[in-house]
Amino acid sequence: MAPADSATPLPEIALALSGLSVAYGGMPVVEAATARFPAGSMTAIIGPNGAGKSTLLKAALGLVPALAGEVRAFGQPVARALPRIAYVPQRAAVDWDFPARVIDVVQMGLYRQTGPLGRLTPDLRARAEQSLADLGMADFAQRQIGALSGGQQQRVFLARALAQQGDLIVLDEPFAGVDAATEAAIIAVLHGLRARGRTVIAVHHDLSTVPAYFDRVLLLNRRVIAEGPTSTTFHRDRVAEAYGNQLLTAIPA
Amino acid sequence: MLAEFLALTLPPMLIATLASLVCALPGNVLLLRRQAMLGDAMSHVVLPGIVAAFLLTGSASGPVMLGGALAAAALSALMIEAIRRTTRADPVAAMGVTFTTLFATGVLLLEVSGASAVHLDVEHALYGNLEGLIWLDGTGWAALADPAALAGLPVELPALAAALAAMALAFALIWRPLVIATFDEGFAASLGIPTRLISAGLTGLTALAAVSAFAAVGSILTIAMLICPPAAARLLTDSLPRQVVLSLVIAAASAILGTLAAGYLPPALGLGFTVSAAGSIATLSGLFLGLAATFGPRRHAPGHPAGRRSGPSV
Amino acid sequence: MTETLLQALFFQAGYNAALVSLGAALLGLAAGAVGAFTTLRRRALVSDAMAHATLPGIGLAFLAMAALGGDGRALPGLLAGAALSAALGLILLQALSSRTRLPEDAATGAILSAFYGAGIVILTVIQNVGIGRPAGLEGFLLGSTAGMLRADALLIALGGALLLGLLASLRRPLAMTAFDPVHARMMGIDTRSTDLMLLLMTLACVLLGLRVVGLILIVALLITPALAARLWSDRIGIVALLAGLIGAAAGHVGAALSLALPDLPTGPAIILLAFAAFVMSALLAPGRGLLSRLRRAHARPGV
């Protein structure tokens, strides 16, 4: 199949969830979530703690089993589209004392090209180094990953995702616990990706930066409360509904 | 028949029961602290402690062995911490390196020094010596009231009874802070509970259990009794006091039925020999756990029928 | 004795002895390298349970082979029995930790002790029925090279070599699954099969190590070289290679020692040599070693 042609006039849907439900141990975590993420958009998934944000992402990518519902990416069942998707998990999910250098982790993003035995060609090596450079981490290539700060670790994870050259980048709380410089570097890279027609979906916590960073929002509290362009969807009433009507001050009225 | 029971079956049965109770008690706390491995480690570390103490003092008396074992337990705690700090490895791996190394040292010390005279050879360390703990004076019911005959009881019996009493007393004294520190260490510290001291105390009590049980029943039964009865009891109840009581019941039942099965089951099947009592008790405790895991009313965590597998974070 | 030791170290103590110490070296190489991944994937404890769970199978295989009129001590038969009972132990362990609320460490300890206890019962049966010559079976507890057959040594050496080849071809998915299983799945790696392969390779190391190191201490040959090697390098491939070399040296020298001193139990000797390598690494390794940290601590005030 030919890769998606960016000149296609119809707005392609990068990711479409319909009726996605996830239960964990008999307790519903996500209920009948339906949402569409147009190609070239950048969406924040927001909602209170326990709203099922991470679970929604993981279920959409088939990383946790869904109870019901369907997920399609680029018009295909998501399992078949996985090679076009890059996922950036939460930083805390891995052992940072693992014996690996920064460049080793980024090269893990090239596994679909190398497979278990294939050689890392000079082209692929250059791709990994460029991804690292895009995040301002070129000088750290030979460092042990445990020697990095939290923000640097997050940049390495994003560099690994860049090396995958996916059309859809899914991030789970990319700004949690990172310094301001890293946040700026990451957002610049993500905006660059969007400018090149890639799709970005991120779980996000800081409501004050939503309008500046994202062009679309999905408000989640087990159910989808609202989804749409930030300008029309990110409003006090809707957000208050998602957050269980707690008082919010950071949101435009 | 009665004389045979009194002389050959009753003493091993009582000793096995006491050893099982001594181990099951601290096992309850190890289970809740996810430190089941500590019991495994301690039961291996006891061997080099006993052997080294014998080689240094020339004595194989109870206090010397206990001292050696506690010293080895302390040494192993230091080694584990040092390895963790140097390698930043998984604590379980650090523990594995420590107890295999110390156990290997114990075996080599035994073989090289010819200390097998301690009536503690490698075989006893592995299988225990329950069958050898007999009461030759147990010739009839009258012997139970005869001080001279009672003096001939295996020395392990009063020693284990004393260890069990000490263990029960220690747990009664530290029970409340121990439970709080096990549930929430940070909270316990905020109440002024010395959590590090409590942890060290638990390690010490585990070592006491391991060394008291070790000489009589061997390392295998020690591990089994530290882990299986509390684990089975955990699947039967959500109440901690009930869990402790049930674990003691299961430990005693394993010991009594296991000793009887080892001594009487093969002859009943027409075989002219008996099998290892320690092994059969350990097997039985595993079967009890299997029953609890299949039918226990509290075998699942609430709301998580699939158990404690890593689930999605929400 | 020194002469025998030197001969054994340099493969000059006769063809059989050379095969035995070559077998031990290849076993150490495979166990060290596989163990680097086992340890990183946090399966050290499970491999200990697996090792202890082989005992009932060894005993039953012995009984079965002796009852059929064969040599109860035939290594391939004993290893087949060991593999079956370890697999049963693993299945029960999986059921206990996934279907009940018990934490994995307790489930592992329970399987370890119950299977080992059952194995001891079966060993006492064997001692009593007086069929065949059971003397060799205790060697499976703490390892012994005494009376090892040429074919056994060859089996261990070949098994170790095959295992190394398999490990080399799976190193990338193994490393990615150990570092970040979620990302590995996103990259199209079947992490369940990868974990299963790692478990099977670990089991193979345990089985090959039963005769030489013994089931009580074989776990140390998986983890101690791995922790020592970790101190020298930050790269998984190099860590696995170094762990293999440390395991090979410990296996070879330990086997040579026990050939020279027949009373010396082989397993403890090998394990203590591996630990000696760990201590050396903890002192000397650049970066993480004690000396280099002391030097840095000294250098700092002057800078």
The CATH superfamily title of the domain at 2-218 in chain B: ABC transporter involved in vitamin B12 uptake, BtuC
> What's the CATH superfamily of chain C, by name?
ABC transporter involved in vitamin B12 uptake, BtuC
The number of distinct structural domains of chain C comes to 1
CATH topology (level 3) name of the domain at 2-218 in chain B = ABC transporter involved in vitamin B12 uptake, BtuC
- The number of distinct helices of chain B, counting runs of at least 4 residues, comes to 11
H and E order of chain B: HHHHHHHHHHH
Total strands of chain B? 0
CATH architecture of chain C: Orthogonal Bundle
Q: Mean pLDDT score of chain B, rounded?
A: 85
Low-confidence stretches of chain C: none
Topology readout:
The complex is a heterotrimer of chains A (253), B (314) and C (303).
Chain A: E1 13-24, E2 27-38, E3 42-46, H1 53-60, E4 68-73, E5 76-77, H2 78-81, E6 85-88, H3 102-107, H4 111-114, H5 122-134, H6 150-164, E7 168-172, H7 180-195, E8 199-203, H8 210-213, E9 216-221, E10 223-229, H9 230-233, H10 236-242
Parallel strand pairs in A: 3-8, 3-9, 6-7, 7-8
Antiparallel strand pairs in A: 1-2, 1-4, 4-5, 9-10
Helix pairs in contact in A: 5-6, 6-7
Chain B: H1 2-32, H2 36-57, H3 62-87, H4 91-113, H5 122-127, H6 147-150, H7 156-183, H8 185-190, H9 195-234, H10 240-268, H11 277-295
Chain C: H1 2-9, H2 15-40, H3 44-52, H4 54-67, H5 75-99, H6 104-129, H7 139-142, H8 150-179, H9 181-186, H10 191-210, H11 218-230, H12 236-260, H13 266-284, H14 290-302
Helix pairs in contact in C: 1-12, 2-8, 2-10, 2-11, 2-12, 3-5, 3-6, 3-11, 4-5, 4-6, 5-6, 5-10, 8-10, 11-12, 11-13, 12-13
